[in-house]
Automatic annotation (TrEMBL):
InterPro entries noted in UniProt: Papain-like_cys_pep_sf
Protein name: Transglutaminase domain-containing protein
Domain of life of the source: Bacteria
């Protein structure tokens, strides 16, 4: 009912009370926070000499029976089409975007693979979050013989309400990783129209270089995305630190008793977490997170 404007300085938060009916009160603190893009620019530095060991990145063969089933059941050869490598990658991403509806607040299904995720969405008329959409696209890429990872993009804070998952798929033609986001039907280009990968997008955001978002980027085929909204605001927040599973395989995160899942996290020198962690539960998945400051190791070619 009422509004207030408070100017705060970086080192001086402002406290005040909201008072209702001269009885009920709530203490409010307004504190300064850098814009997310400025925060990302302060996270530019890495340590290329960091040699801490972590498991090697591996990619499941398209000859795996589960991946062959995905390729055949969803007719992915027809979905991908007969164009060049990049066009097939884009077609697969757009297909996932079009057959699955996104809802970031929904609970994940218990079984997390492309066949079951797509199946439960059709059966229940439900949506899934970006992680599940990234899981589906990742398995489709692997099934088609493309080396791929789903990439969890996170803010600086260790506790947060929102992050985002995209895919990075390796182009043999371009000899680099390519950014594909099935949630927003998005990929990113430079001023020459060449597709970029997550590493390049992050660097260009920090350095103020040209970035072009594909014009048909959208959310649920309802809300168009702009470079300012999607890249300079939303992804600027979520490109502070990034994480992948070491093994890019079918059914990666479905809970199975005794299963071990390893995560590799790329953290800048200013990051709040500089050490790995381990969680062991014989009745469920056990998780180990390895931290590296070395982008060359994290973005290693397959």
């Amino acid at each position: 009912m009422d509004s207030i404007v408070i100017k705060v300085k970086p080192d001086k938060p402002q406290d005040f009370y909201i008072l209702l009916n001269d009885k009920d009160s709530a203490l409010i603190r307004v504190s300064f926070q850098l814009p997310r893009l400025e925060m990302l620019k302060q996270a530019k530095k890495y340590n290329f000499a960091d040699k801490r060991a972590f498991p090697a990145f591996t990619y499941q063969s398209p000859d795996d029976p589960a991946l062959k089933r995905i390729r055949e059941e969803f007719k992915l050869d027809s979905v991908a089409g007969s164009g060049n490598e990049i066009s097939r990658m884009i077609n697969l991403m757009q297909w996932v975007h079009n057959i699955i509806r996104h809802d970031g607040n929904t609970n994940n299904p218990a079984i997390k693979n492309a066949i079951d995720i797509i199946g439960i969405c059709k059966q229940e008329g439900r949506a899934v979050n970006c992680r599940m959409m990234g899981t589906v696209l990742n398995e489709c890429y692997l099934a088609m013989g493309f080396k791929s990872r789903f990439l969890t993009c996170m803010p600086k804070e260790l506790k947060f309400d929102d992050c985002h998952v995209i895919n990075m798929v390796y182009s043999n033609d371009a000899q680099k990783w390519i950014w594909m986001d099935p949630t927003f039907n998005a990929y990113v280009m430079d001023e020459k129209g060449e597709l970029l990968g997550p590493k390049e997008v992050r660097e260009r955001l920090i350095n103020g270089q040209q970035l072009i978002l594909n014009p048909d980027a959208n959310w649920n085929r309802k809300i168009s995305q702009t470079k300012a909204k999607y890249l300079e605001t939303y992804m600027a927040k979520n490109l502070y630190r990034m994480e992948c599973t070491a093994a890019s395989v079918y059914n990666t995160e479905t809970v199975v008793a005794g299963k071990q899942v390893n995560y590799i996290q790329l953290v800048p020198l200013g990051g709040l977490n500089q050490e790995g962690s381990k969680s062991e539960n014989p009745a469920k998945n056990s998780y180990t997170t390895y931290v590296t400051n070395n982008p060359d190791l994290f973005w290693a070619k397959p």
